[in-house]
Known about the structure:
The protein is α/β, with parallel strands linked by helices. The chain has helices spanning 3-21, 32-39, 55-63, 86-96, 114-122, 135-145, 160-166, 179-195, 209-231, 236-248, 256-262, 268-280, 294-299, 309-315, 323-337, 375-392, 420-426; strands spanning 44-49, 68-72, 102-106, 127-132, 150-155, 252-254, 284-287, 302-306, 341-346, 351-358, 361-368, 396-401, 406-410, 413-419.
Amino acid sequence: MDKNHKLRQHLQEQQDTAHEIIKYDLIERSELSNTLEFIDSKFITVIIGHRRSGKTTLALQAVKEKKFLYFNFDDEILSDLKSDQLNDLLELGLSLIPKAQYLIFDEIQNVEKWELFINRLQRKAFHIILTGSNSRLLSQELSTHLTGRHLSVELFTFSFKEYLQFHKVDTKNLKLEKTENRSLIYKLFFDYLEYGSFPETLSIPKNTSIYKNYIKELYDKIITRDILQRRKIRNIKSLKEVALIILSNFSSRFTFQSFKRSSTINSLNTVKNYVDYLQEAYICQVLEPFSYKIKQRVSLPKKIYPFDNSYINIILNKFGHDLGKKLENLVFLELKRQQHEIYCIIEPKYEVDFAIKKGRTIESLIQVCWALDNEETKKREIYALKEAANKFNVQDLTIITDNEEDEINYDRLRIKIIPAWKWLLEK
């Protein structure tokens, strides 16, 4: 059997798999409407996000009524192709599905100089969808070679609304005044907080070796394949060490110097590079402190957040612990999912978890606290919001808690206290 025949068979298997996926009763992602709008424009649609967050499924949902071709470069056969073989690959695909106008290229950044091939295709009559699990690598190459000719969709793991939809909860018609409904929502919220929301894990029983191995293998694959191999890093131990230090400091302040002191790495630049690589691969995200002065923003401590709570519990074995920090991480992810420009505020006497900026103005401030039943805790959270609100002239103030709801009028300020599950459903 010649090489082309084997490749053709492999492509046919990929098309069969893609068409099987769109037969399922899939959860409609909130990003689908933008994706549908983008794919019929003259621009290339780029879907970026964490591995196994549902990028391929989203792309297939968008083209399920179209005539499309699907190419998965995240396997050993297509990832070994050279850029000058991509035209032949496309011809093979078109021999399987003639006149296909929608082309999905999954993880095509695994092929060197792929962007030159896509650039040529873009000038033809095809509608192109790219997916990638490396944020900066994909965006930098697109910015260089396809300036102004692509539109991006960033995909996260399931939102709480999507999580409830998977569990057949009709949030639109749910009567939350009923105790049993609130109890159901809260139980599902707590599971969402503890176990994360990778789509494939939702049907796996939790506290099983299957679930734990899924998260561990996903994490290891990102470290080894998406970072070590792509960045050609030789010191595997040091990268894994920094990754664990980052996860251990979730929802907390940090400086690169503090990470360096906690590791066996001698170079501060190496630590900074590793943090950048882990961000690129969607293991974590650094949150910058807000300041109108750029020099001050660089010098202040920052905060770090993993891209799914499952990493906290499985990699760090933190089930049932640090619930307040996990809640803060969840709020961070929702704010990113909603595409807000967010910062933290770090001052000598207080700290505000999230400041949402619009234009040059801070428009809202959010504190996250598991419970306000301790008077000292309540005073601290209110004091931080009051100081920041007066400094930045902000009226929209919120404290997100586990399950408390109230409204405080304090020193001419109105502070909304809301349970996290309710805030997530309102967004």
